Amino acid sequence: MPVDETQFDAVVVGAGPAGSAAALELARAGRRVALLERGPFPGSKNVYGGVVYGRILDEVAEQWWSEVPVQRWVTRRSTMMLTPTQSISVDFRSQDWSGPPHNGMTTYRADFDSWLAGKAVGAGAELITSTVATELLREDTGRIVGVRTDRPDGDLCAPVVIACDGVNSFLAKSAGLLPAADAEHHTLGVKETLALPRGVLEDRFGLGPDDGLDIEMVGCTGPIAGGGFLYTNKETVSIGLVLALSDLARSGRRPEELLAELKAHPSIAPMLRGSELKEYSAHLIPEGGYDHMPRLATDGLLLAGDAAGMCLAAGIWLEGVNFAIGSGLVAGRTAARALDRGDVTAAGLAQYRQRLADTFVLADHRRLRRAPGFVLSPRVQHEYPGLVCDFLQHLFTVDNPEPKPRLGALLRRTARRRGIKLTDLARDALAGMRAFR
Ligand SMILES: Cc1cc2nc3c(=O)[nH]c(=O)nc-3n(C[C@H](O)[C@H](O)[C@H](O)COP(=O)(O)OP(=O)(O)OC[C@H]3O[C@@H](n4cnc5c(N)ncnc54)[C@H](O)[C@@H]3O)c2cc1C
Q1: Which residues neighbour 427 within 8 Å (Cβ) at sequence distance 6 or greater?
Q2: Closest-CA residue to 171 (of 152, 156, 185, 184)
Q3: Which site in 199, 203, 315, 395 is 20 to 30 Å from 172, CA atoms measured?
Q4: How far is the CA of 238 from the centre of ligand 1 (A)?
């Protein structure tokens, strides 16, 4: 089908973090770029836990921290292991993170995505909302030359399309870059937003007026591999679970049941006492990491963000927004240079992967390629939280007139009671060190 490619230089599908970053770079390069979003405004349909690591925004705006729509600056980070009756936390706080350039911030996606899309529009991108890309347009050779949309006059033509339509990307599947279904490498994220008066929230979590808390949890998903999180906003708390999709299907459990169990846990319930449910949401997360990323470019098409599986989900880290922005920026730059050279074929766009490898996006994924598998492995998920909690419970229990236990003997005894072999423990410790090296 001959198509008029002169309408735009590029079409970016999805005004999430990846799409807005890609459109921003193309607009900065002087290119005519359409930024297509199915929601009525950017972020209106987007679900995540709540923390954005902002340093990548250095490439978006100088002193971004003075204008970004922040809820709280994260100054406290905890990692928690739970059993049904016990918990242990490693709790770190640093006031160094309360001032620029900060570290993490909690922010609502409706605010953050709108702000970021505004940067692209400010640079000259054309934002088209309430419009769904329904099909890829191809010329006779098969090269992609735009998208069909659900508007009556809706074809948007351009020599290059950047698919930033998120996890389970319809466009990447249509281009043959993603398999039709891949439950093994996806988790389901479910989240509740609960309101608490600001003063109560700050007193309860020990926070200053703008300070925020980020808790990541393991051992709170019953028989299902996954984890939990709790983040503080100004006057709300976000609490949620991330659940391995195939395990969830096999278990017959409902995600909202599991979330209710977490909220009722003796270590969590007091944090939420008196709160009021404001919102429930759910969304898929690509967890495959480096080894399961698709091919990133084909003739006339690039993938960025979750559409390319670039979310880093590795236990102590659940970072997708910064990876989406990082990859979107590089995709936008690569597309602009390919347009300059007049070669938007797969060969002309092939530099994208190398450029990404030179940034944290692929460097982190590559280095941590074993981390998602390690964190989701059965012993880490279902046996070690109990081992650590039992060990500490015995250590902290004063059994006079019994003498205090020797640590080595206590570990052996606790492992034996839990049916864990010390050789497996040693092997996993080594695997963990390798995964996070
Ligand atoms: C429960 C949960 C908790 C998470 N917690 C965190 C966290 O705390 N911190 C973090 O950094 N990451 C977190 N993530 C991951 C993070 O949300 C994603 O990695 C990130 O949003 C990816 O950005 P993106 O721009 O690639 O895709 P998205 O944010 O999904 O944006 C895709 C955009 O494309 C639009 N779109 C889709 N299809 C079409 C179409 N056909 N036509 C037009 N528009 C379309 C959508 O409306 C959307 O605006 C979490 C994810 C989940 C599910």
Answers
A1: none
A2: 156
A3: 315
A4: 16
- Which token pair is 172? 């990447």
Per DSSP, 75 falls in state E
The four Cα atoms 251, 257, 259, 261 give a dihedral, to 10 degrees, of: -100
Residue 152 DSSP code: T
Q: Distance between CA 111 and CA 164 in Å, rounded?
A: 19
Question: Cβ(289)–Cβ(132) under 8 Å?
Answer: no
Fold classification of 183-286 (topology level): D-Amino Acid Oxidase; Chain A, domain 2 (3.30.9)
* Nearest-10 crossing angle of helices 384-396, 407-418: 140
Please, which pLDDT band fits residue 106 given cuts at 50, 70 and 90? very high
pLDDT of residue 6: 62
Ligand 1 centroid–CA 88 distance in Å is 31
- The gap between the terminal CA atoms of the chain, to the nearest Å, is 51
Query: What's the chain's Rg over C-alpha atoms?
Result: 23
Q: Among 52, 285, 323, 365, which is best to mutate for testing ligand 1, by the most ligand atoms less than 8 A from CB?
A: 285
pLDDT in tens, 266-279: 999 999 999 999 99
> Is 50 close to ligand 1, i.e. is its CB under 6 Å away?
yes
Ligand 1 contacts CB of residue 166 (under 6 A): yes
Q: Which atom of ligand 1 is nearest to the CA of 327?
A: 26
241 touches ligand 1 (CB under 6 Å): no
Q: What are the domain boundaries of the chain?
A: 10-69+107-178+294-368, 183-286, 377-435
pTM: 0.97
- Please indicate whether residue 308, judged by its CB atom, sits closer than 6 Å to ligand 1: no
| Segment 183-198, tens digit of pLDDT | 889 999 999 999 999 9
Query: Whose C-alpha lies nearest to ligand 1, atom 18?
Result: 320
CA 416 to CA 411: how far, in whole Å?
8
Residue 258 Cα distances to 263, 385, 419, angstroms: 9, 17, 25
Give the architecture (CATH level 2) of 10-69+107-178+294-368: 3-Layer(bba) Sandwich (3.50)
Does residue 282 have its Cβ closer than 6 Å to ligand 1? no
CA 49 – ligand 1 centroid, Å: 11
Q: Using alpha carbons, select from 161, 193, 190, 199 the residue that is nearest to residue 177.
A: 161
Going from the Cα of 287 to the center of ligand 1, the distance in angstroms, rounded, reads 13
